[in-house]
Specification:
The complex is a heterodimer of chains A (333) and B (269).
Chain A (H helix, E strand, L loop, with lengths): L4 E14 L2 E14 L3 E5 L6 H8 L8 E10 L2 E2 L5 H7 L4 E4 L3 H4 L6 H12 L6 H14 L5 H4 L9 H13 L5 E5 L7 H18 L2 E6 L2 H7 L2 E6 L2 E7 H6 L4 H9 L45 H5 L5 E4 L2 E3 L7
Helix pairs in contact in A: 4-7
Chain B lengths: L9 E16 L4 E17 L3 E5 L6 H8 L7 E6 L2 E2 L5 H5 L2 E4 L13 H15 L6 H14 L16 H14 L4 E5 L7 H18 L2 E6 L2 H7 L2 E6 L2 E7 H6 L4 H8 L4
Parallel strand pairs in B: 3-8, 3-9, 6-7, 7-8
Antiparallel strand pairs in B: 1-2, 1-4, 4-5, 9-10
Helix pairs in contact in B: 3-4, 3-5, 4-5, 5-6
Classes of the chains: A alpha/beta (333), B alpha/beta (269).
């Protein structure tokens, strides 16, 4: 069965400029998102995942960073070569994005209703009466399970809890029924019980609306819950990609293996007798400075199975087993 | 220098602790209500134990942490360290017994001071408190030993906080807390702003220090996986009150209170 690739990021490279320094935030990164799929982009700080997300909609300010190469293909068009007006049509309408902290994304001086309405009126071609708009907004807020939408729509963001603010963000993002939702750490700032609700909501909306979701996170628990496929990023590039179950049961790249071993949830201490707690198998060292990357494989200084060849040349991403890719010369079944 | 162990090795005893914040209205700032941030809680921590307080935002766990180190004064209730009421201790005496490490390694280090200065401040205070005369060479040696103890190179004394990563800054914060040779460390979300791989290193460090220095911890955290891994006993807070308490195994394996169950069910995977 041929899977239709809805979005394809091909060999994307992004540099940031900080004074004299050039930071290679993204280096030849490629991912693809199928229709109705939830893809998790996982990695630690500085790996480039947020940069990739922002690049899809060209949201990186020009004075801060530049896309130096690559293509982003959406419905046959390269988004990076579109005229600005066309890009604006796609933003919010075909591809939407929600961010980590809804409180900083929402405008504090406008009521929720106005902000939702803004998104709709930008993309709607016909004029909608305010009465009709109200009904549309209430329906949207109901869709995101907002309590008492007829009342809360008139609130200001600061009057709402974090979870409710995020629901508003999702409502705005979905107001024009986009095909793709990019969610950059959407639940990091929320309590765990609210996180569960928001993730459940996203899953439900995906099913109801046929949505595809690109979920950026550092939390493996979240990807396990809602993603079908995972791409692991390190130092600006994808180092492993496979179905979620594959990643957890059979991680092939030493970095992915190290990350999973570092998780406290996967290390049950032997009983709770105080002084015999096992230690976590932590990865030694730290993530490299993106302005000063090591030679060859960027993970080699921290890799437990490093050999001489690893320092010479950065490996290609190769398919180790059906649809399971890893960027490591020593990765094997 | 250790106090005589009292109360069956209970290093900390919190009894009926309350912290109410007044809500004021109008130009005369009349008190109309109270936010009951901590509402009559009691718990004990045994020597050598890692004791966790968990709950979601607004439950009162951070306020409790601040009360234990006297960054806030309680509205009511008593906190005792080995049987001695902490409100009767001088600040200096208390700081030699209980220290705190914070969540945000970026905010808790003075950006204008070098690492050497930051840690030296703390070590010097300990020397002065114990009546020893400050000797420069030994002082520097002790600072270097502290840094090595937390896994940092000893030669960073002239560097500034911004030159370090989050994990390294957290280690510096821990070194500073250890300088006073405390017996109890209050760790307020010590790893939540750190990446997974760094988090693992810091968690290992906290366990190593517990074993090598005989420390006890009051751990404040919202990540239930971290709590399960690190703690011996856990107490669940909700809206200022304790809703469940017990050994980590008991609470995680057979939670009794509906809120605890909800919290545990919400953990992904």
């Amino acid at each position: 069965m041929a899977m239709k690739k809805l979005l394809e990021v091909r060999n994307l490279s992004v540099d940031y400029y900080k004074g004299e320094k050039v930071i290679h935030a993204l280096r030849d990164a490629s991912i693809s998102l199928e229709k109705n799929e939830v893809l998790g982009l996982v990695g630690e700080s500085g790996c480039g995942k947020s940069t990739l997300a922002l690049s899809i909609l060209k949201l990186i300010p020009e004075r801060e960073g530049r896309i130096t190469s690559g293509e982003i293909i959406f419905r046959g068009e390269n988004l990076l070569e579109l005229p600005y007006e066309r890009l604006l049509q796609i933003r919010g309408d075909r591809i939407s994005i929600i961010f980590q902290d809804p409180f900083t994304s929402l405008n504090p001086v406008f009521r929720v209703a106005n902000q939702v309405a803004e998104s709709i009126s930008i993309h709607e071609e016909e004029n909608i009466s305010s009465h009709q708009m109200e009904k549309v907004i209430i329906k949207l807020l109901e869709m995101v399970k907002m309590p008492r939408p007829e009342e809360t729509m008139w609130s200001y963001p600061h009057q709402l809890s974090g979870g409710m603010q995020q629901r508003v963000m999702i409502a705005i993002a979905l107001s024009c029924n986009p095909e793709i939702l990019v969610a950059d750490e959407p639940t990091t700032a929320l309590d765990v019980t609210i996180q569960k609700e928001i993730l459940g909501l996203l899953t439900e909306l995906r099913e109801k609306l046929g949505l595809s979701i690109l979920l950026i996170t550092h939390d493996f628990g979240i990807v396990a819950q809602i993603c079908q496929k995972i791409s692991v990023m390190y130092a600006g590039i994808i180092v492993e990609e496979a179905a979620t179950s594959e990643i957890f049961q059979n991680p092939l790249h030493p970095y992915t293996q190290g990350l999973l071993q570092s998780l406290p949830s996967r290390n049950e201490p032997p009983g709770s007798k105080g002084h015999e707690k096992r230690r976590l198998k932590a990865i030694s060292g730290q993530v490299p400075d993106p302005a000063n990357l090591p030679s060859g494989c960027k993970f080699h200084p921290r890799c437990p199975i490093v050999i001489q060849e690893c320092k010479a040349k950065e490996p290609e991403l190769r398919e180790i087993v059906g649809d399971h890719w890893a960027r490591c010369i020593r990765a094997d079944l | 220098m250790h106090e005589k162990v009292q109360n069956d090795g209970l290093i900390l005893r919190v009894q009926n602790l309350k912290k109410y914040f007044p809500v004021e209205r109008g130009i005369f700032r009349r008190v109309v209500d109270y936010v009951r941030a901590v509402d009559d809680i009691s718990f004990d921590i045994r020597k050598g134990e890692i004791f966790a307080l968990v709950g979601e935002s607004g439950c009162g766990k951070t306020t409790t942490a601040k009360l234990v180190v006297r960054l806030l004064e309680p509205t009511d209730g008593k906190i005792s360290f080995y049987g001695k009421d902490v409100s009767l201790m001088g600040r200096r005496e208390l700081s030699q017994k209980i220290q705190i490490i914070f969540q945000d390694p970026f905010a808790s280090l003075n950006p204008r001071l070098t690492i050497g200065t930051i840690v030296r401040e703390a070590v010097r205070q300990r020397w002065e408190a114990s009546g020893e005369k400050v000797k420069t060479k030994e002082l520097r040696q002790e600072i270097e030993e502290l840094l090595v103890q937390v896994g940092l190179p000893g030669d960073i004394l002239d560097d500034y906080p911004h030159q370090f990563s989050g994990g390294q800054r957290q280690r510096i914060g821990i070194a500073r807390a250890l300088a006073m040779r405390p017996e109890l460390i209050v760790a307020d979300e010590p790893v939540s702003s750190l990446d997974i791989s760094v988090q693992a290193q810091i968690l290992n460090l906290l366990l190593d220090l517990r074993d090598s220095l005989g420390l006890s911890y009051l751990l404040i955290a919202h990540d239930l996986n971290v709590v399960r891994f690190l703690s011996d006993r856990v107490t669940v807070m909700y809206q200022g009150k304790i809703v469940e308490a017990g050994s980590v195994d008991a609470v995680y394996n057979s939670p009794q209170h509906f809120y605890t169950k909800r919290l545990l069910e919400a953990i992904p995977k």
